[in-house]
Each structure stands twice: as C-alpha cells, then as structure tokens.
Amino acid sequence: MKFLKKAFKRRTTWLIFGVIIAFIYLNNSSLLAQKRESQPFLLAHRGVAQTFTMKDIQNDTCTAERIYKPEHNFLENTIPSMEAAFEDGADMVELDVHITKDNQFAVFHDWTIDCRTNGTGVTRDYTMAELKKLDIGYGYTADGGKTYPFRGKGVNLMPSLNEVMKHFPHQAFLIHVKSNDPEEGRQLAQYLSPFSKKRLKNITVYGGDEPIDSLKREMPNLKVMSKATMKACLIPYIATGWTGNVPNACENTELHIPEKIAHILWGWPNRFLNRMDDVNTRTIIVGGDGSEFSTGFDSIQNLKRLPNDYSGGIWTNRIDKIGNYYKDEE
Predict the structure, then answer these.
(1) What residue stretches are annotated with the GP-PDE domain (predicted)?
(2) pLDDT tens sequence across 228-273
(3) Which residues pair with 257 in a beta bridge?
(4) Rounded to whole angstroms, how far apart are CA atoms 87 and 245?
(5) Measured between alpha carbons, how far is 283 from 296 in angstroms, rounded to an integer?
(6) pLDDT tens, 30-65?
(7) Can you give the three-state secondary structure of the chain, one letter per residue?
(8) What are residue 135's phi and psi, to 5 degrees?
(9) CA–CA separation, 145 vs 141, rounded Å?
C-alpha cells in the first residue's frame, strides 16, 4: 500500500506540474494569441538625420565629426527633416529639447552647442532668437575635417518646440528631455497642459527619472517613459507576467525593449503586445542589448531579425530606408 500511495503522489505531482506548464504555454504562446492585423509602428529617431558609426561612442562624443558620407541633405531635429520623416512613413518622430535662457524649449540634441554649430557653451545660456542665428550644420564632416558639406546651410534651422507643434498640429511626437532637471519637467508640463486631450494623445515624453517624475505629477494622464518607469513595469512583469497579469506600473506609458532581451518577456511578441495595448502602453523595439538605446533597425536586413508578422513599434535612424519597405507591404 505504501508503494501505491507513493506512486499515486508522484503521478499527482507530475500531473500538477504538467498542468502548470501547459497553462504557462497556452497563456503566453503567440501562436494562440489574438491576431494582430496592423503594420508596425515606425518611430523615426530625430527625423531624417545624418547617421554615424556607433563604435566606441561615449556620452560626450561629437557625432557630427563621424558621420557617414551623406546620402541626403537633411539635418536632425529640424522641421524639414521631420517633414521628410513623415513623408517616408514615420508614425512618430522623436526629437530632443533643451530649455533656453528665455524659457523656451529649443529642439536640439546636444547639451553643448560646440560640436554641431559655430557657437560655444550650452543652450540655456542663449535665447531662442540667439540660437536661431547659429549654423547647426557647421560641424558635420564625413572625412575627418577635410570637408564640411553642411557648413553655411544650417542658419535659422534650429526650431523651438512651439514651432514644431504649430507646424505639425496632428502628427505624433516623442519628446526627449535631455537634462535631468526636475524643473524642466514642470516647465514642459506648463507648456503642454493647455493642449487638447486629442492633441496630447499624440505626444509622449521621455528622459531622466527626475524631470519625468515631475512632469507626470503635473500631467498624470500623459504617456511618459524613463528608466524608473521601465523598471517599475518590467521587473514585476518578468516575475508574474506568466499568469497574464500586467502590473499597474505598466499602464499609460511607453516601453523601449532591447532586441536581445525581448524574448524573455512573457508572451513575446503578440501576447505581450496585446497586453500592453490593453493598458494603453506603446511598445518599441530597439536594437542591441540596451546599452545604447539609439541603436535602431536601419536596413531591410535588420528588419528580417524581427519575428514574423511583428506589428509593434520599431525604432529607426533610417526611416528613409525602411519606411518604403512597409509601404510596399501594404
């Protein structure tokens, strides 16, 4: 009898174990997920921009001095580059902002103006009018300084955030607050608060933990992202997501998922994407392992690494290359 009891207990244990494994599989398999019909959501980093080698790049690397041979005449973070990005198929354009001396938001990537322009110092030491007088194409070179193909062509091209919002009243933007100053989050909230609910649905803000936290306090319904919001969502999701539970911290935000860790997320890709859609969260896949979030899917060959029929967001530095690929797929 003892033997039979032990055998029964073992069979019961294995049966329970098998049921749990079956539940986890069925609850997280994309094969059984609700079918997603939409095309991927294309997020154009800085609009249509000059690209550069990422080798040995540091936070203070002057990327304008290492661009590849230009294939177009657009400069990042300008209204013409954003127009071109939307024409090429971008669903959203990412742009960078800094506060100015006269409390406007300048659309410009670098903390200092030394690298790209013919000026020196930081944006907050200048008024918006003074920044517009700079040549933002001054420092670009593809041959180590022998030639500067955009020098003299970038005067009056640095826009204010207000100019961008007025020029593109219906398009979607991901605004990157470049400083870690909480006051800039409050100032951005003050600027965005008068916008209509419809307009704000097309605006997402990301950046350092402190400005994003202060912005979120002022505008709790605005979609935001920071390292803190990412961790608050993903760490508990990795622990409990196999049940189908989505942590409250995942609601109403944006997630940038590095390609090399995406596969560890429960339900990746379709179940995961559906779950995030259900809590009003946008999922963007970026290249690499997360050490450099500017790495994108910048060629047709890159896109082939994505799961079949992937329909989430894609971060790209070359919307001019991949946008047509999805247009042709329609």
Answers:
(1) 61-326
(2) 999 999 999 999 999 999 999 999 999 999 999 999 999 999 999 9
(3) 285
(4) 38
(5) 14
(6) 666 667 667 899 999 999 999 998 887 777 789 999
(7) CHHHHHHHHHHHHHHHHHHHHHHHHHHHCHHHCCCCCCCCEEEEECCCCCCECCCCCCCCCCHHHHECCCCCCCCCCCHHHHHHHHHCCCCEEEEEEEECCCCCEEECCCCECCCCCCCCCEHHHCCHHHHHCCECCCCCCCCCCCCCCCCCCCECCCCEHHHHHHHCCCCEEEEEECCCCHHHHHHHHHHHCCCCHHHHCCEEEEECHHHHHHHHHHCCCCEEECHHHHHHHHHHHHHHHHHCCCCHHHCCEEEEEECCCHHHCCCCCHHHHHHHHHCCCEEEEECCCCCCCCCCCCCHHHHCCCCCCCCCEEEECCHHHHHHHHHHHC
(8) -95, 100
(9) 6
Token pair recorded at residue 111: 């903390």
- 67 has which bridge partners? 52
Q: Does residue 216 contact residue 222 with C-beta atoms inside 8 Å?
A: yes
Residues 5-26 have pLDDT tens digits of 666 566 666 666 565 566 555 5
Q: Tokens for 200, please give them.
A: 């704000």
